[in-house]
Design goal:
Beta-Lactamase; elongated; 409 residues; PAS-like_dom_sf; 6-stranded antiparallel sheet; 2 domains; alpha+beta; PAS; 13 strands
Length: 409
């Protein structure tokens, strides 16, 4: 926030900037879902518990997951939940076991119970068979007829912004070895967000996290603990790196905005170190003090070459008091400006510009002065107006005295 000062040095307003934050909010929401899934999945000790935890996490993010259905895959007559390492068999013997769902009506659940993977040309079986041989999620849409009609009115009204579902993706969890798929996730897509790279990346992170948990559950206990810790550290490091990059970009933008506002501001100001060395001076400062930017090196409290000779001692004394840790009131001084500044026909008004300096110390956490911000206001017109009023009053008194003397004669 940048203050706007009036001619008398008081604040008359403030300039603030509002930034569109939709994408940032969505990224944080999705990152929170991935991190929560990582925590819940790491704590899972069986595939049954993993499916339940995954659905519980997705249920808390209706904006990106309007609905979800989970199916595990097992051989006919063999439940994959109790025997995850059963020997491989062909696609013809596979059966999809319904594990749970969120965000759907009971009618939709009745339409898609457990089913044989190799049988049927309707429902989810064709899409599951396609996902079986694909290395990436399969997108289903109502427009091309790949999404079953039952999904149009099967989403709960309190999810998906209360609108009919138009698209979904099917993700197959890759095999531990050979050609065995461990399960399928049917995930509804938001009707308010495009299925772009960010959305695809979010889904990929979810499925990767589930697959890693499936692997850990099926590994020996010793390897499970070590790999879970490594994966958690990796995910935590990735999230921290992403957050650090985001915050660095925000800080960089704020610095650019501040510099742009400062350089275009009509109010002159400068920032100094406690020892008086300048840190930053905006363009208005150079203009008021009659200094060419970059023309000479600045010493403590800037260059005094343009300060009126009668005011140099006073100005330096003021800054020395500030450097000693003393708070001072705003002070006035003159700078040399060639020419007749205000077109006032008076020797005292030629070549001078009056400035009002208002130093404001900035304290750090320890209470010491970290830096000093000084605001400069051009009060030349005010000083010259006072001069004219004084002259006018003097002339009136002289005229009155002359009139009195004339009457006495």
């Amino acid at each position: 926030m940048l203050p706007i000062l009036g001619r008398d040095g008081t604040a008359i307003g403030a300039l603030d900037e509002f930034t569109e934050a939709t994408n940032s909010v969505i990224r944080e929401r999705r990152l929170g879902t991935v991190l929560e899934l990582d925590e819940r999945a790491t704590a899972s000790r069986s595939l049954k518990e993993l499916w339940s935890n995954a659905l519980a996490v997705l249920e808390r993010n209706p904006g990106d997951a309007p609905f979800a259905l989970l199916y595990s895959v097992s051989d006919k007559g063999i439940d994959n939940r109790t025997s995850p390492t059963h020997p491989l068999s062909s696609l013809m013997t596979k059966r999809c076991i319904f594990e749970g769902a969120i965000g759907v009506t009971s009618g939709l659940l009745d339409a898609f119970p457990s089913f044989d993977l190799a049988e049927g040309s309707e429902g989810l079986a064709p899409a599951f068979r396609q996902a079986w041989g694909s290395a990436k999620p399969i997108k289903l849409t109502a427009s091309d007829g790949t999404l079953p009609q039952a999904f149009a009115n099967g989403v709960a009204l309190d999810r998906g912004f209360g609108k009919p579902c138009k698209s979904a993706v099917i993700c197959a969890f890759p095999p531990l070895s050979g050609a065995r798929i461990m399960g399928f996730l049917v995930l509804g897509l938001s009707t308010h967000r495009p299925y772009d790279d960010d959305y695809q990346s979010f889904i990929r992170l979810l499925t990767d996290r589930l697959y890693k948990s499936i692997t850990l559950i099926c590994l020996p206990e010793a390897r499970q603990r070590s790999q879970a810790a490594a994966e958690k550290r990796e995910l935590h490091h990735a999230s921290l790196s992403k957050e650090l990059l985001r915050r660095s970009q925000v800080v960089e933008k704020l610095e650019q905005d501040f510099e742009r506002f400062a350089e275009t501001s009509p109010i002159a100001f400068a920032v100094y170190q406690p020892d008086g060395l300048p840190i930053y001076m905006n363009q208005a400062y150079y203009n008021l003090n009659g200094i060419i930017k970059g023309a000479s090196a600045f010493g403590p409290w800037a260059d005094t070459q343009n300060i009126h000779t009668e005011d140099v001692h006073m100005v330096r004394k003021q800054w020395e008091q500030i450097a000693a840790g003393q708070e001072i009131n705003p002070f006035e001084y003159r700078v040399i400006k060639p020419g007749n500044y205000c077109n006032i026909n008076d020797a005292e008004a030629v070549g001078h510009r009056w400035l009002l300096a208002h130093p404001v110390p900035q304290l750090n956490d320890q209470g010491a002065w970290d830096e000093i911000v000084c605001w400069f206001t051009d009060i030349t017109h005010q000083k010259y107006s006072e001069l004219l009023q004084t002259r006018k009053l003097k002339d009136e008194l002289e005229s009155k005295e002359m009139t009195k003397n004339f009457i006495d004669m």
